[in-house]
Design brief:
By secondary structure, the protein is mainly α. The protein contains four helices and no strands. The longest helix is centred in the last third of the chain and has 39 residues. The radius of gyration is 29 Å and the shape is elongated.
């Protein structure tokens, strides 16, 4: 449970307490604590599989477009940084050679 959900739940409990109503207490989840190591791993992998089925995967055309944009952008940034490095190196060498 994330922080926001916990805050909402606490707020709701405070409001119900003020109104005189009380939510039934949840019993502790001992079943999860009693699961063995491999059973927990198995359950985790099943849940991962279910979540991956819900993912909206990009189409082949989208992947080609995304990959192309990434390669072109990486190349452009690399050439820009190389150019700056070359210019600064030559500038420093020029200043050192003048003395």
């Amino acid at each position: 449970m994330n922080r926001e959900m916990r805050r909402l739940q606490e707020r709701e409990e405070r409001l119900q307490k003020k109104q005189g109503k009380r939510r039934p207490q949840k019993r502790p989840q001992k079943a999860q604590e009693q699961l063995g190591f491999f059973a927990r791993i198995r359950r985790f992998l099943k849940e991962v599989r279910v979540e991956l089925k819900r993912v909206s995967w990009p189409t082949r055309e989208q992947m080609v477009a995304f990959t192309t944009v990434t390669v072109i952008t990486s190349t452009a940034v690399t050439l820009f940084v190389f150019g700056l490095d070359f210019v600064f190196k030559e500038g420093v060498l020029f200043l050192l050679a003048r003395n």
